[in-house]
Amino acid sequence: MMDLIAFAAIVAAAVFGYRWMSQVLQDSGRGRASQIIMGVLAGNVAWLFAFALLVMIGLIDVDDAPEPVADAEEPATAQPRPDSDPPPANTGRELAAPDAPGQLDTPTGEVEMPPSPPDQLAADGENASFESAYEAIEAGGSYPPEYQQLERMEGGVRISPLVYENDRPEVVRSETARAAVVAVYTTFIDTDADQVRVVAFPMRTDIKQTFHQPLDVPTHDLTVTRRQAADAADDLVGMTAFEQLTKPFGNLWGWSDKGNALQYSDQGPGAFVTLERLRGSN
Q1: pTM of the full structure
Q2: What angle do CA 114, 247, 253 make, to 5 degrees?
Q3: Contact 49/13 with Cβ under 8 angstroms?
Q4: Where would a tag sit more exposed on the chain, N or C end, judged by fewer CB atoms within 10 A?
Q5: Using CA atoms, how far apart are residues 160 and 219, in angstroms rounded to an integer?
Q6: What would the mean pLDDT of 211-217 be, rounded to a whole number?
Q7: What percentage of residues in the chain have a pLDDT greater than 90?
Q8: How are strands ordered across the β-sheet holding 162-164?
Q9: Pairwise CA distance, residues 148 & 154, whole Å
Q10: What is the pLDDT, as a whole number, of residue 1?
């Protein structure tokens, strides 16, 4: 009944607007064509005004319209690393990892990957996105070579976090250790390499980055096989596949809770313990 009343009110408003404008123009001596055109415009304005008024007073409820039926969605599946073209440099994975300790990542909809048998711990990398450790780390964007933070080496990479003159020694040590861990596990996540050599030392600079001075303390130089890295992560965070260290982030990937635990001491063993375990495997 209320809908019928509302419809009648809108029609009446349109008719009133048309007749009123036509009469005004007729009284002013305008032609029939002008009366019809302006009358139609006036009628449209009148019914729109009436419609808005009826919505305001509650006679018309715009929320009653039926919602379209959505197509059935396929169930979400785990996507630790999307199969896509390599991402451009300086846009990379570290955007999804916390810049400071203490930030936990709890992605919604992430599916726990089924454990792999022990003999498959070192079998990851079959769908490698990059041919070398250098290319994989460069794509992450956190250690750009143009700032002398990344360099190719025989069998691996040299990686250097930027540090500043006022940084405390413990900050320099932790950032250097974390860079070494990042280099090792990024290599085995994104390439099919069976072994990698990583040399990590800090690169001092100023706030405007007008110079880059390598520091020889602290320095990490280690060679790790895929099996050794897998065993270390399994012992420390219960990893059964390298992809468990990652989580989807657009066309890229970020570090999962387990990946962060290998780097940050407030979320797990941290970088120092991880490096010691990797060295102990040699």
Answers
A1: 0.57
A2: 135
A3: yes
A4: N
A5: 10
A6: 91
A7: 48
A8: 162-164, 203-205, 213-214
A9: 17
A10: 65
Token pair of 34, please? 């002008």
CA–CA distance, 187 with 194 (Å, rounded to integer): 9
Asked if 177 and 188 count as a contact pair (C-beta separation under 8 A), the reply is no
CA 37 to chain centre: 55
Q: For the segment 87-136, what is each residue's pLDDT rounded down to a tens digit?
A: 443 334 443 343 333 333 333 343 343 333 333 333 344 556 899 999 99
What does DSSP assign to residue 168? -
Burial degree of 235 (CB within 10 A; 0-12, 13-18, 19+): middle
Pairwise CA distance, residues 152 & 158, whole Å: 6
Asked whether the predicted pLDDT for residue 177 surpasses 60, the reply is yes
Residue with tokens 């102990």: 280
SS3 197: strand
Task: Report the alpha-carbon distance of residue 90 to residue 75 in Å, rounded.
Answer: 32
What's the pLDDT band for 169 if we cut at 50, 70, 90? very high
Q: Which of 203, 190, 209 is nearest to 134 (CA)?
A: 190
User: Which spans in 104-168 are helix H?
Assistant: 133-140
The residue among 21 and 1 whose pLDDT is bigger is: 21
| Coil vs helix vs strand at 93 | helix
Q: Check the CA dihedral 199-125-94-247 and report its sign.
A: negative
